[in-house]
Structure formats: structure tokens, C-alpha cells
Amino acid sequence: MNEEPKIKFKTTETELEAVKTVFHDAASFPDGIKAAWQFLEEKLGSLKGRKMYALLWFPQDGPIYRVCSTFEEGERLDLPEFTIPGGKYGRIKIENWPENIDHLHRAAKQLNDKYGWKPGRPQIEFYRSKTEAHMLHPIDE
Prior knowledge:
The protein is α+β, with helices and mostly antiparallel strands. The protein has a single domain (12-138), classed as Regulatory factor, effector binding domain (Multidrug-efflux Transporter 1 Regulator Bmrr, Chain A, Alpha-Beta Barrel), CATH 3.20.80.10. Helix content is 19%, strand content 35%. It has two helices and eight strands, in the order ββαββββαββ. The protein has an eight-stranded antiparallel β-sheet. The longest helix has 15 residues, at 101-115.
């Protein structure tokens, strides 16, 4: 039997301000994730200076995986806008995330186990840099 190694990530708590973004929803989860990122990145043209996020939540009609980017006021991107909700979040930092994609899933599970699922609030992946990602899980409704 091939079990995942037990990894315990350090959890901290942080306050997140609401973040205004443009977004694109994946056609399916998890299969549509890569295509959603490709679509958003093509629309943006350049990622330089942008903050990138992915949101995941599970309403009754099925999972939503939403890829998001910050944008400059007045920028014409032909994408819908979404404000990522502010509030108190549990956070796990993932170093070298491109080589440790599986750590994002494990961190999400650890945060969910600690804080419980909030059906009306998304779990957030914040891509702080090309090597550092933060998994954020809502603490309050």
C-alpha cells in the first residue's frame, strides 16, 4: 500500500484585506485547472507586477476552481471581476511550490482539519512568487 508521507506544516493566522481581481473559472475540477490558468495568463499578457490567486470552494451544485489576478484600474482585460473576501485566515507557506505541488493539497487538508470547512468561503492559494505559495483557509464566516 502506497501511503502519502506524513508532513506537518507550520500554521499561522493572518488577516487578509479584500482583494479586487479579474478571474476565470475552470470548466471542471481538477481536470480543468491547467486550462484555466493558461486562459487567464493569455488574457493578461504579462504576469509582471500581478498577484495571482486560485480559489476553491464547494457549493451544492459542484466545486468551483477560480483563477484570479490583480489588475490596474482602467486596464481593459475583458474578464469578469471578483473580490476575494477579506477576513481572518489560517495560513501555511509552501516553499518551492512548483516542485512540491502535492504540498498544496496536503496543506489544504491540514487547514481544513484544523479550522473546518466554510461552505460559503473559498480556500485560497496565493502565489506570492515563482517559488513561494501560501495556502489560506478562512477561520471566520
